[in-house]
Amino acid sequence: MSYATTLNETHDPELTSWVESANQENCDFPIQNLPFAVFRRAGSNEAFRGGVAIGDQIVDLAAAKNSGLFSGVAQEALNHCDSPELNDYMAMGKSAWSALRLALSKALRTGSDAQSKLSQCLVAQNEAEYSLPCRIGDYTDFYTSIYHATSVGKLFRPDNPLLPNYKWVPIGYHGRSSSIEVSGSNFKRPKGQIKAPDASEPVLAPCKRLDYEMEVGIYIGNGNNLGDTIDIDSAEDHVFGICLFNDWSARDIQGWEYQPLGPFLAKNFASTVSPWIITTEALAPFRCAWHRDESEPQPLPYLESEQNRQTGSYDIQLEVQLETANMREAGQPASHLSLSSFKHSYWTVAQMVAHHTVNGCNLQPGDMLGSGTQSGPTHEEAGSMLELSNGGKQTINLDNGEARTFLEDGDTVIMRGWCQKEGAKRIGFGEVAATILAAD
Questions:
Q1: 66 in the same domain as 183
Q2: Structural domain for 49, as ranges
Q3: Which of these is catalytic: 80, 148, 238, 356?
Q4: Which is it for strands 403-404 and 396-397: parallel, antiparallel or unpaired?
Q5: With 0-12 CB in 10 A as exposed, 13-18 as middle and 19+ as buried, what is 59?
Q6: In this predicted structure, what is the pLDDT of residue 157?
Q7: How many separate helices (H) and strands (E) can be counted in the chain?
Q8: Into how many domains does the chain fold?
Q9: What whole-number distance in Å separates Cα of residue 220 and Cα of residue 240?
Q10: Taking the chain (440 residues) in consecutive chunks of 10 residues, what is each chunk's mean pLDDT?
């Protein structure tokens, strides 16, 4: 069994922390989670640095480095977390990640001798602001939900929704990393060329069919050399962790520009990630079987393994909510739009990594893979408004009486994620949120 699927003492559901908020029911960040982010106190001139969430607090890793509480590989790892980017720590690999996680777990447990010193290294999350957790050198967006691909395909090709290669190849395209920002980074409605079906020529105009895409982001830790490949059974040893990812899409711009080369301006104006990276080790209890129906094409050998069959999927619950400007002004809660799970993905994380490198492509620490929109088998599990509104033909009714087909200025899209099952402690991803501003 690989590192990515092995359980150890840090997963013990009976563990509690001296940080009392971490012991509350349905807390996103119990001691069994310990996700990483880059933060500083909001409004301060402090340097951004690494932090680990515990309850409603953050362990300031720069302060922990100087606490004298840690030694060995854990201390070496902390030396790489005193930085506004976690790439060097992520490059250290699974042994260092695991050593620091275990050391922090022991130091944060109820009854730990480290409490008096480590409590001085805590910063309240409600006093923090976040940056991207690492330098994202390259970003590749996959298309791994067959339910999403089929729904979207039906809108444009009713008789042949899936292209012939979909069930053989983990489809992906190279995206734009420079426009990925952390949760809370609002953005202006994009402009681009749009051609109406009955128009003779396109116009330059603000997007009218702005959409979200409920995805997960997969952060690469230690990479591979140019020309080398990563085999499927070691692929997840190269994955540091997973976040929530909203890959915003301008559907009308996309419809005009995407042939013959695919996504461009419709996808590179904004993407938003949650601040916290949930490590693959924290996710180990929530691995589940992956299968391909016997009637379907089976993966080529480089995408196939017994380990991937047994534990290749993650059961991560993914929820989307919409808060309109009117809801915000009236103090009303956001309206639920959909709930699905990453376990429905047609391709696994390991298959994405193995395929990405089969040609010798070199992944680097901090690179990110987008999963593609995660939709489930039912309409209520659709991960985009394009699907929920049937291409804009049906209105989506919100809790306060408003309706949408696509997003309007002032709308805030909120995505949340969590893992929960019998025999394991529930862990959460926090949230990713951003608000759409009017175009110039």
A1: no
A2: 3-131
A3: 148
A4: antiparallel
A5: buried
A6: 84
A7: 11, 26
A8: 2
A9: 6
A10: 79 98 97 98 97 98 98 98 97 98 98 98 98 98 96 86 94 96 98 94 97 98 98 97 98 92 94 98 98 95 98 98 98 98 98 98 98 97 97 97 98 98 97 97
How far is the C-alpha of 37 from the C-alpha of 224, rounded, in Å? 24
CATH code, domain carrying 108: 2.30.30.230
How much is the pLDDT for 156?
79
Q: Is 80 a catalytic residue?
A: no
Q: Of 99, 131, 163, which residue constitutes the final position of a domain?
A: 131
The pLDDT of residue 1? 55
Answer yes or no: are the C-beta atoms of 283 and 240 closer than 8 Å.
no
**Residue ranges of the alpha helices (H) in 36-163?**
61-65, 72-79, 87-91, 94-108, 115-118, 146-156
CATH at 414: 3.90.850.10
Q: Three-class SS of residue 190?
A: coil
DSSP string, 238-288: GEEEEEEEE--EEHHHHHHH-TTT--STTTSS-EEE-SPBEETTTTGGGEE
Judgement on whether residues 144 and 101 belong to the same structural domain of the protein: no
pLDDT one-digit tens code per residue, 287-320: 999 999 999 999 999 999 999 999 999 999 999 9
- In angstroms, rounded to a whole number, what is the distance separating the alpha carbons of residues 409 and 369? 28
